[in-house]
């Protein structure tokens, strides 16, 4: 099993971002900064250590640009996770039920090609772009050319 990655991202306000990652995405909360008020929170993002850091007024926590990928304007930068199809499908349904507005709605990309995948893009409350994707055969398709 690969080791989990660690990523930390800036958020403008910790409260709305914390609620989003915990309650909307369903990530288990880990450590929380002991400061009063706290400035960062760890989450379990599908087995990876994901940290939000409050940087008030930070305009860097947003999309810098977009690149065309299989007919979509993909936000850059972005981060997320590769999931098993049942987990991806459950997350897509959870997000739809929560009324999340997608940048790119759940869809299949590269249909019929070696890298065929399911993908969806959304923004957190600070404008950070997230992508969640799934493959029928992760080991064979993730890096397929």
TrEMBL record:
Gene3D superfamilies: 2,3-Dihydroxybiphenyl 1,2-Dioxygenase, domain 1. InterPro entries: Glyas_Bleomycin-R_OHBP_Dase, Glyas_Fos-R_dOase_dom, VOC_core. It holds the Pfam family Glyoxalase. Residues 3-135 form the VOC domain. It comes from the Bacteria. This is VOC domain-containing protein. The lineage of its organism: Bacteria, Pseudomonadati, Planctomycetota, Planctomycetia, Planctomycetales.
